[in-house]
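Bug report (template v2)

What were you trying to do?
Predict the complex of my protein with 3,4-dihydroxyphenylalanine.

What happened?
Run completed; filing so the output is reviewed.

Input:
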Amino acid sequence: MQENISRLRAEIEAYDLSTPELLDQFRIAYTGRKGQLADLFDQLKTVPQEQRRAVGQELNQLKQQALARFEERQQELESATRNAPADPTFDYTLPAVPNQLGTRHPLNLVREEIVRILSRIGFNVAEGPEIEDDWHNFTALNFPENHPARDMQDTFFVHRTPGEPEWLLRTHTSPVQVRVMQTQKPPIRSIMPGRVYRNEAISARAHMMFHQVEALFVDENVSFADLKQTVYYFVQELFGSDVQVRFRPSFFPFTEPSAEIDITCLICKGKGCNICKYTGWVEIGGCGMVDPAVLEQSGIDPERYSGYAWGMGIERITMLKYQIKDLRLFTENDLRFLRQFEAVQ
Ligand code: DAH
């Protein structure tokens, strides 16, 4: 045993530690859990009882010595790499390698463009909660209690106990109109982009979660002509001046009169294709004059003020603008899809 300790001491003192690799070998061979020192500690039990203490102490000392040598050398090597002179062959005039930050999501690009276009003519942005109460989502918007119109929008209810207020995931951005009118005085010119939810099976054309942008204009003497001109301006700024708009009479409980907004199909340029079902037109949203009852329920005097509103699907607009044929692409996070859009600067 004594001999082994002396031999090991001599080896440890003489070991060449000039490189990080040798230092690592040293650690494995001597101080590591399967190293030679650990072997000697294991053999300690074979040493006669009366010598065991002294041999044990000697072994411990040797271990400390080995560890000290290891740590000292490790620090020396580390500071040597830190203070190493710069590589003389490195060309400092090379342009930097650009940092790839990814791309912007197409729905964000389009939402921001919509906000930009409408803020130029005086609309500001308002927001409301995604978990909404039944009153804002339906009642204040003239959907009568227990009226089948509520089934038009397959609702996800969050909390539904008879006799208590109902909570739901908003089925459209129209409740934000009510919230804006409750808290602001006319003139009101707001757009309300946001996420909405409907209990629909997910397919290429439908999703249980999508986005809308609502617009609301309330002032004295607001007319349907104002609505039409604003929609013309908006569509031409967004899609280009060769795109046509048509208003189709429709029904919404919260507007009177109501219309649906169609634009000429951007895929076939009006000639007819399967996206526009061979009509040459695609619907992008609904609109109308805010029903006086809705104004009144939201705290605006319908004798003095009138207003128009619209709601459009951001996915629909994005699909038309970029010719995307499957709604599911927006939420699948497939990099081959996402990388085709504008890079983050
Ligand atoms: N909220 C309607 C929907 O989700 C869209 C809509 C229609 C919004 C007419 C409006 C409007 O503001 O005036 O189907």
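What did the reviewer find?
Strands lie at 124-125, 131-133, 157-159, 167-169, 188-197, 209-219, 245-252, 255-264, 281-290, 306-313. The chain has a mean pLDDT of 91.
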